[in-house]
């Protein structure tokens, strides 16, 4: 697991560690997740993870006189319905320093001390995984998938695409971190592929990422070398087919329009992938990249300060923005493609991917359609080529 970093919560555009822990745990369908804190601490992750969670909804009296009785009441209500209950601590109870160990009982209750001040979403996600302590079974068949997070708009799509690619290669899926049942964490396979390197689980031996066509090919080559029975040919054929389709579509676009000037914001891995995709196939001018996590460098600025991102976007006057509704609001006249939460004012019912072959195809499809619409708008767009 990567070392946790304490980050300030001032003007954040990225969820805190408490939300990251909830996102991790809520991915296990047979675990009841309890947010031990105020109503605000409950409703924020509840609005993002897309599945039911529970809360203690602490009020002033409980903060003054102690929260143990309220938490015990909620646990009793859930104990008959769930084999396992995960309690995520928030900032106020963490500061109070109450000892809740007696409530663990026979191991039915997991306590995850992941208050928001611990750091960002990734820190909380890993804290929750550390508490679960997945076990690798050397004899387990298949390959694990990781990088799946309930707060990610592409969570389900990435999981489905990873499973599809593994099935093409004749590989079973062992455990999915985190979109599975709790029992799967007790029998993880020795090897793992990821959909989002920002959320690498550290479970088993990492064989690579599925984020980007090159990464897909390299990852399946490694799998073929370490896992018996892997047939890489169907996956390599898909990668080549997708590469040809993207090149053809982009060449057609560039015969009519100039390459766009682009501003990108999101998680570090997604932002870097999108920048490479647009530069490689579309010759786009990557004017600025703002990462919510990771580190600065290689043309990427790490920031969760809205004023910094606003200044970056206004300075470059992009034709196209990839990011969240925050970035869209800064320059509403630009073409826009959603890449990270939050994505407001739109309905999302189907399971779109960013990872894998379908993820690369879908992202470039969204970019080209957004840019075509932008170029056709009155008063918008670059010069049309005839």
Describe the model.
Helix content is 41%, strand content 16%. The protein is α/β, with parallel strands linked by helices and 386 residues long. The radius of gyration is 22 Å and the shape is globular.
Q: How are the SSEs ordered, and which strands pair?
A:
Blueprint: H1 17-25, E1 31-36, H2 39-49, E2 54-55, H3 60-65, H4 68-79, E3 84-89, H5 91-96, E4 109-113, H6 121-132, E5 143-146, H7 155-168, E6 173-176, E7 191-194, E8 205-209, H8 213-226, H9 233-254, E9 261-266, H10 268-282, E10 285-291, E11 300-302, H11 306-316, E12 320-323, H12 325-330, E13 335-338, H13 356-376
Parallel strand pairs: 1-2, 1-3, 3-4, 5-6, 5-7, 7-8, 9-10, 9-12, 10-11, 12-13
Describe this structure in a few short sentences.
The chain is α/β, with parallel strands linked by helices. Helices cover 41% and strands 16% of the residues.
Unreliable segments (pLDDT under 50, ≥5 consecutive)? none
Give the count of helical stretches: 13
- What level of helicity do the residues show? 40-55%
Q: Quick check: average pLDDT?
A: 94
Rg, nearest Å: 22 Å
The strand order across the widest sheet is 11-10-9-12-13
């Amino acid at each position: 697991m990567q070392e946790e970093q304490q980050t300030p919560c001032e003007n954040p555009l990225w969820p805190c560690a408490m939300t990251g822990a909830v996102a991790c745990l809520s991915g296990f369908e047979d675990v009841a997740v309890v947010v031990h804190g105020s109503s605000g601490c409950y409703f924020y992750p509840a609005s993002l993870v897309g599945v039911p969670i529970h809360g203690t909804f602490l009020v002033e009296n409980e903060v003054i006189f102690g929260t143990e009785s309220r938490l015990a009441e909620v646990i009793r209500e859930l104990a008959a319905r769930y084999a396992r209950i995960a309690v995520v601590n928030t900032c106020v109870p963490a500061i109070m320093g109450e000892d809740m160990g007696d409530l663990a009982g026979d191991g039915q209750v997991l306590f995850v001390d992941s208050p928001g001040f611990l750091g960002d979403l990734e820190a909380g996600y890993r804290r929750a995984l550390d508490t679960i302590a997945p076990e690798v079974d050397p004899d387990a068949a298949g390959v694990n998938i990781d990088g799946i997070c309930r707060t990610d708009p592409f969570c389900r799509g990435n999981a489905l695409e990873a499973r599809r690619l593994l099935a093409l290669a004749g590989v079973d899926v062992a455990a999915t971190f985190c979109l599975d049942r709790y029992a799967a964490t007790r029998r993880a396979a020795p090897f793992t592929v990821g959909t989002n390197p920002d959320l690498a689980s550290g479970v088993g031996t990492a064989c690579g990422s599925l984020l980007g066509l090159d990464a897909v090919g390299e990852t399946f080559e490694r799998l073929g070398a370490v896992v018996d029975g892997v047939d890489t040919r169907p996956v390599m054929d898909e990668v080549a087919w997708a590469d040809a389709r993207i090149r053809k579509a982009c060449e057609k676009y560039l015969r009519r329009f100039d390459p766009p000037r682009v501003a990108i914001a999101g998680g570090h891995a997604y932002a870097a992938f999108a920048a490479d995709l647009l530069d490689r196939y579309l010759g786009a001018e990557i004017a600025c990249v703002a990462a919510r996590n990771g580190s600065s460098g290689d043309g990427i600025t790490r920031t969760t300060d809205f004023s910094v991102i606003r200044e970056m976007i206004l300075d470059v006057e992009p034709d196209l923005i990839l990011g969240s509704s925050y970035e869209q609001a800064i320059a509403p006249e630009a073409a826009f493609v959603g890449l990270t939460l939050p994505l407001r004012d739109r309905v999302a019912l189907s399971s779109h991917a960013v990872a894998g072959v379908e993820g690369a195809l879908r992202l470039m499809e969204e970019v080209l359609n957004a840019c075509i619409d932008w170029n056709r708008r009155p008063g918008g767009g670059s010069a049309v080529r005839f």
